[in-house]
Prior knowledge:
Layout: E1 2-5, E2 8-11, H1 21-34, H2 47-60, H3 74-86, E3 100-102, E4 107-111, E5 114-116, E6 122-126, E7 128-129, H4 134-147, E8 149-151, E9 158-160, E10 164-166
Parallel strand pairs: 6-10
Antiparallel strand pairs: 1-2, 3-4, 4-7, 5-6, 8-9
Amino acid sequence: MFTRTEDKIRSVVRYPSDLTDEEWETLDPIINELEPYTIGRPRKSDLREILNAVFYLNKTDCPWRYLPKDFPPYKLVNYYYNKWTDNRLLETPESYVESGFDGGKLVTGRKRPIVVDTIGCVLVVRVHAANVFEGKTARQVITNLFRASIPSKKSGAIVPILVRTYLTGS
Length: 170
């Protein structure tokens, strides 16, 4: 729902994915610095509402055309989403890792070596390009597993104390 105050559209928090005023105060200068609007006609769209729509789509995973009517038109939201992801103002977790091709397994994209405990709970995850040798990443995964572990006081066995997710190769 929109309310008009002094020719400015102010949004009311409607969905759990909407930005709070505090979050918007943090993001507004960053967006204006990285994506300044200096030429052309003045922008009529509210960037906060566009970000709210992007976060709503991300949270609910609904199609663009099913975006509720209290958000800006889906074509406008899609335009800004594509513009921001192309400029890397917005990035998805997959965009942090390069993709590659493993000729032996005929795999394109990314590989995700994982370490799990005996009941299947994930202890360590690494995401890397498919063309990286698995022997190298296996050593890194095992190293990261023991970095997140401490010896048990009673038995002296190595016990993982925290789950780490690694999106990059470092």
